[in-house]
Structure prediction request, 164 residues.
Amino acid sequence: MTIGIGLLHAYVREIEKGLAKGIFTERSYYPYLKSLLESAGKGIDATNEPRRIDCGAPDFIVTRSSTTIGYIEAKDVGKSLDEEEHSKQLRRYRGRLSNLMLTDYLEFRWYTNGEFRDKARLGILTRDRKVKRDKDGLGAVEKLLAGFLAHTAEPVGTPKELAQ
Prediction:
């Protein structure tokens, strides 16, 4: 499972086009993230706004051949992920979801089993609503997303674990 630097460049260009329009909201960028994730390999499906689960309604569920890989919570481009990381919503998700990504479409933070695992950034949003790219960010995001997409759920050992 790999996304590739070329696809990440194209993804950032799409984000920049949306920023230039000046009318996009958090949800307007969903198609770009969906396309990026699904380009990682055969059988990957990123469904935005899936059915609500017991801990809430993450923005995306990512599956491979109908097996859940993980969940993604997306915030608007440039929104502080430092603040979001400590929100009630994200604490709830981290407590219940074994593979979770928080993103503002430019920065990606990965959590496994409730713990922070890694982060990477394609660039930062400038005051004039342009993306200042991080020269090392493309490779770092590619590696982080590959890890997220390669995650496998832990096997269920007992009926009680299955119920949880």
